[in-house]
Amino acid sequence: NAGVTQTPKFQVLKTGQSMTLQCAQDMNHNSMYWYRQDPGMGLRLIYYSASEGTTDKGEVPNGYNVSRLNKREFSLRLESAAPSQTSVYFCASSEAISGRGELFFGEGSRLTVL
Amino acid sequence: SQQGEEDPQALSIQEGENATMNCSYKTSINNLQWYRQNSGRGLVHLILIRSNEREKHSGRLRVTLDTSKKSSSLLITASRAADTASYFCALRGGAQKLVFGQGTRLTINP
Asked: Considering only CA atoms, which of A42, A47, A71, A96 is closest in space to residue B43?
């Protein structure tokens, strides 16, 4: 049982390049999330998907797009990377957006934008 | 903002001692959760306490919630080196999305 799997684990981009972070979960969860973690800032929600077919903006969505490809997969795309997007990105999933709502996290994707 | 404010930001204690971390917030909540993050790893859920609960236990963990003071505390008893990590409180309010605090870095010295 892999839980939440993120790829790639590390990536270095140049300003203006694009890339997609992939996330997949095997727990049959309905809801999925993308967070970014910066020193001293805690985790901030970028986008989330309450259920398959829906996506919504979180606290810091600017510069990002997401796709809920199917129930298992939720990708995060940077169309034109900026140094301010240097961060550690975490994907998470939960059974539902409401209720108990315990989140299961991936191991993170460390992105550096030069 | 619904974000929890954690205190202290960093805590260093000797192995075997108890560690207490606090989380304060400003809005009403449905539940409050605590997570642990080991260095370079993802977050792991520790315990959830609902707004109508005052205390919960899980192994060496004890969580309290005081909704009148809008605060929660996480107590780790008989600390071990393996407890060295960052600990985050996370709030689930009316908007249903989970909002994380900035975390407490706990160091257990041998």
From this structure: A42
3-state secondary structure of A86: coil
Q: How many CB pairs under 8 A join A and B?
A: 53
Note down pLDDT in tens along chain B; length 110 residues.
Answer: 568 889 999 999 999 999 999 999 998 888 999 999 999 999 999 999 999 999 999 999 999 999 999 999 999 999 999 999 999 999 987 666 788 999 999 999 99
**CA distances (Å), B70 to each of A113, B4, B25, B35, in order?**
39, 10, 6, 18
- Residue B46 contacts A where some CB pair is shorter than 8 Å: no
Instruction: Determine the 3-state secondary structure of A35 from DSSP.
Output: strand
The angle subtended at Cα B26 by Cα B45 and Cα A88, nearest 5°, is 40
Q: Provide the shortest C-alpha distance from residue B33 to chain A (in Å).
A: 8
